[in-house]
Amino acid sequence: MRATELFDNYIFGTLSAEEKTEFETRLKTDSEFAIAFEKHKILIEGINQHEQRTHLKQILSTIHKQEFGNEAKIVSIKEETFIKKHGKTFAVAASVAIIAVISTVTILSTGGYLLKQQSNAITDLKRDVTELKYSQDAIIEGIKVAARKPSRSYVPANVEGTGFAINNKGYFITSYHMVKNADSVFVTNNVLDRASAKLIASEPSLDIAIYKIENIDAIKNLAFPFSFKESTSEIGDKIFTLGYPRRDAVYGEGALSSMTGFNNDTTMYQISIPVNPGNSGGPLMDEQGNIIGIIRGKQSSAEGTGFAIKSNFIKQTIDNLENDSLKKELGLVTKKSNLRGLKRSEQIKKMQPFVFNVMVYKK
To answer: By the 8 A CB rule, do 351 and 343 touch?
Structure first.
């Protein structure tokens, strides 16, 4: 729906209650959107006033003809004509209307609302890494680990994000948009030193990529914590995620706010977790520690609104593989979450070794 149509639907009361609430929330959170709406409203008011004046003149003309006949003339009681008296007012109104239209189009199309809606409706949450930031992080990390192991310096990755294990054989899931055209991929976390990973399979249409870590010595003997929820999640269910919007793991929690994603995409959930660049590929968990989705991105025009690919599409991606032996390798270790019944801090401790900071290098 074009922005002007959305504005008109709100003004004339044709939006549903849910759409009206979403519209009013956007007015409060998106200043460009609010400015564009106000200018569009001025234009509509000007048009309505002109139509009302025209309609009134038609009514008066009809009454005059009924009372005095078609031949009777309307004589002004003043010398100045209506145009002379109100011409400047109409000119100003017309100018305001034209300026409003031009401003609205400019704001909505040049780096503004329409452009965001069309080309950046969902912001990818890969974390682009700059040399300066990487150097700062490396210095901080070096200070923290200097006492326990020799410091190592690496060429900074182009992109960083998150991934999570699907079994204890080294296989993990991450976002395809993050690793697309990657030359090499490495992972690390609180127990795993920097380890290389290779692409095993991908499904670009679902934004899913499956990788395998080459050296899993640090985690192969740890109890694998995850399971995938088989039953359908419900709106309002409490959810949480763990990811790498910075070099240390970051926890976030919220609720499942819709069973569909942007533009009613049925492959995604809408979530009320404030996800950030670096969260791409992270696990979306229910309260019992079952994986219900993969963090995909967020709505660029609404803070605190994120999207996650539903976990059943991981299974679908695996089931669609032609290699039967690989399908078997990718099977889940457990059907029951080892996180069930634990308090959140304990759940996170068991999760952390199997949630990875993914570092992507591109030529």
So the answer is: no
Using the 8-state DSSP alphabet, how is residue 264 labeled?
Answer: G
The answer to whether 194 touches 154, Cβ cutoff 8 Å, is yes
Of the three residues 79, 103, 119, the one that is the final residue of a domain is 119
Question: Hey, is 265 helix, strand or coil?
Answer: coil
How do 290-299 and 227-228 pair as beta strands? parallel
Q: Residue 292 corresponds to which tokens in the numbers above?
A: 């219900």
Using alpha carbons, select from 217, 187, 193, 207 the residue that is nearest to residue 355: 187
Residues 90 and 138 in one domain: no
Q: Are residues 209 and 253 in the same domain?
A: yes
**Residue 228 in tokens:** 């995938």
C-alpha span between 129 and 196 (Å, rounded): 18
Q: Are residues 211 and 80 in the same domain?
A: no
* pLDDT tens digit sequence for 204-243: 999 999 999 999 999 989 989 989 887 778 999 999 999 9
Question: pLDDT (tens digit, 9 = 90+) per residue, 295-337?
Answer: 998 877 666 789 999 999 988 899 999 999 998 898 765 667 8
